[in-house]
Amino acid sequence: MGEHDFTSIDIGRVAGQAVIDSYIESYGHRLKVNLDEPDVIIRVDVIQNEIFIGLDTTGDDALHKRWYRVYSHPAPLNASIAASMLRIAEWKKEETIFDPMAGSGTIPIEAALAGRNIATGKNREFAYFKIFDMELSPQKENKNIMEIYGMEKFRKHVEGAKENARVAGVDDTIHFFQGDATKFSGMEADVIITNPPYGLRIGSKKMIEKLYTGFLSKAKEILCDRGRIVAITASQREMMEAAKKNGFIIEEKIAVKYGDLDAVIFKMHI
Asked: What is the pTM of this model?
């Protein structure tokens, strides 16, 4: 980043040659380089007038990628954001968690994985462990009995979420069912975490306002004492208006860049 009289190709060439020269000096022979499947990735970034050099411990695959996503919703939630929303909600394993707009099940599945100590990167090959000839030792999986619910309006997404949960190995932990986020009843929840439709996923702002207002009205009915809601949306004004109409207090707003969208994660309670 910044203006320089050299390119990223120049940086790569100089940095690569420096690594090769250093290896020759240390071991007396030239380093064999495999650019397609490297065991060690060295990152060199020049930002303005500073240079940053480090070892890439995670590899080229982004950390948000999950092995269990065999069914993809048209607008899937980034799994890393879903995991972060669980932390923002301060969800505890003994609390009932509910996602009324579950899509392909990302939030309930991430909750189940966290609750059962299943590493979200268990099928990844972390470069760090290759470098130091170590093996990734996951935490011992437990069989905590948890109350995790996911609801989705469309049957095909319900079935897709169930399939993702099965592949993740947590289908016996999550209860997925079909329903409307503005009409559900007959249950109690300590925490509601969800990724409601917004923008191109739903259409007009009036439709978003109606959905958000109806959703929060029903959420207010089922939340237990000290219950809270964490929701992500790019329709910030509509969420704030719906919260105000239903008497929710917004504790926190966290700005998130979600693709090309400027989204916000809301944390609120009655």
From this structure: 0.78
